[in-house]
Amino acid sequence: MLMQQRLGLRLSQRPVLTQSLRQLVKLLALNKLDLKTEINQELSENPILEISEESGDDPEEYDESSETGSDETDDKLSGEVSEDPFREIDLGSFFDDYLDSGPRAPADEIVERPSFETFLAEPLTLVNHLEWQLSMSHGSETVLAAAEAVLGNLNEDGYLTASLEEIRETAGVSAEDVQKAVELVQTFDPLGVAARDLQECLLIQLRECETEDGMATTIVKDFLNELENKEFEAIAHKTGRSLDEVERGVELIRTLDPRPGQRYAASESRLVEPDVYFVKSANGFRVVLDEEDLPELRLNRSYRRLLDRRNASKEVRNYVRERYHSALQLLRNIEQRRQTIRSVCESIVRRQRDFLSNGMEYLRPMMIKDVAEEIGVHPSTVSRAVANKYGHTEHGIYELRFFFSEAVQGPAGASMPLMLLKLKVKKMIEQEDLTHPLTDDCISKVLSQNGISVTRRTVAKYRGDMNIPSTHHRRKKRVVS
User: Fold this and answer.
1) d(CA 408, CA 420)
2) 3-state DSSP call for residue 278?
3) What confidence tens digit (pLDDT) does each residue in 105-132 have?
4) What is the C-alpha separation between 71 and 414, in angstroms, rounded?
5) Confidence band of 66 (pLDDT split at 50, 70, 90)
6) Using one digit for the tens of pLDDT, what is the confidence trace for 279-332?
7) Nearest to 406 by CA among 391, 422, 393
């Protein structure tokens, strides 16, 4: 089949993300500490900006339209700056259309695009990394279901802590499917995960890097005790290989990772400082943004005279005009960021008033798209407004994303947050008799008696999400005195 090249034109309208809007999108996703760093960076780069010692200066009075002796270009620029940059473009439309590579679908076809709330940045865990690989893997539904159960039973080192029989019961599949699932996960990165012991972990890695002589594999299979005691000559004598071959095999083994999951288990220390305070008052709760130690900016008046053509050259006036434009843009975007975060938090107060008053048991389901519709912005704007930011309540400090949770069927047909359901499962396990721990099926039945319809497989998934071991590994033998 011959390929033909054609040259053609296609007209399309595509929104443009202006420099002002790019800055606003960036500022909106910053927390208080990062915003302070960004402001200090701008202060060092833009001489027009300075820190105000006292409030009262209105940035708008410095609009370029008030220049004396300015030319037509200055008037045009003034008109551009007076517009609200945040309303120049729909963030959602931009991201939907920016990567468009072909004709659009028919107008009457509705395509549900993935929500931007799923793209929020967060630390990559071992399970997240493996789930991503599993989502791109091929296999029967039963094998993939068993693979999910395998991922839910990995410890921080990446080892499989449940028996194949327990996984079979959890996933409700055949033993053959479980074996295929384990073999599938063992092909994922990092190599060595889903191993039952150290020997299997090392052998999985050696499949990819073993030399032709197979000495390293032989040592791991048959001579782990000798390897641990560094009895290299004994290994050489028993295998009939030279000492050099044995030492080369040992060197290869030393390059392997006995705990492959640990590279995703390292936690970074983070300085957390509330960006918002939910303060109780006589009329309910008030939203107070913590901006006490943020620099209060204003425009430097002394540069105004350089915009007069009688006092400076055209190059100098153009530079000062550009810096004024940049400074005004920053001030307006900071204010827009403030108003957006305030609007989102006020919506949280209206929807989570019971939680703010009474605590965790009163948390209600709340979706990002619902808040976005209420305050009249795109869901991606809400996602950025709550990302990496924390709120102070009477019950503790919570990340603003904590308040957003999907709904599941609760008692009497009412909805309840998924987070509360997980906490119920965790509480039941914490109160169990360790000599007779609750099975996933038993937990499912207890929840069903309380009006919460959850399958055994779903309970196992939630338990895995919370890193709670299986029934077998929670059981403790009764000590007979």
Assistant:
1) 10
2) strand
3) 333 333 344 444 433 445 668 888 888 8
4) 65
5) very low
6) 988 888 999 998 888 888 888 888 877 777 777 788 888 888 888 888 889 999
7) 422
- For residue 86, give the nearest of 325, 332, 455 by alpha carbon: 332
Angle (nearest 5°) at CA 458 between 455 and 464 = 145
Q: How far apart are CA 182 and CA 159, in angstroms?
A: 11
Which two structure tokens, joined as six digits, stand for 304?
């105004």
H or E stretch at 105: none
With left for phi above 0 and alpha for psi between -120 and 50, is residue 375 left, alpha or beta? Answer: alpha
CA-based diameter of the chain, in Å? 101
Q: Which helix (H) or strand (E) holds 459?
A: helix 456-465
Instruction: Note the pTM of the prediction, 2 decimals.
Output: 0.51
Compute the distance between CA of residue 246 and CA of residue 220 in angstroms, rounded to an integer: 11
* Residue 284 DSSP code: E
Helix (H, G, I), strand (E, B) or coil at 298: strand
Cα of 308 vs its chain's centroid, Å: 50
206 contacts 256 by C-beta, under 8 angstroms: yes
Alpha helices in 352-455 (DSSP H): 353-358, 368-375, 379-386, 418-430, 440-449
Q: Decide: residue 63, CB within 10 A, 0-12 exposed, 13-18 middle, 19+ buried.
A: middle
| Strands 49-51 and 276-281, bridge-based pairing | unpaired
**Whether the Cβ atoms of residue 21 and residue 88 lie closer than 8 Å to each other:** yes
The answer to whether 423 touches 360, Cβ cutoff 8 Å, is: yes
Q: Is the dihedral of CA 467, 473, 478, 479 positive or negative?
A: negative
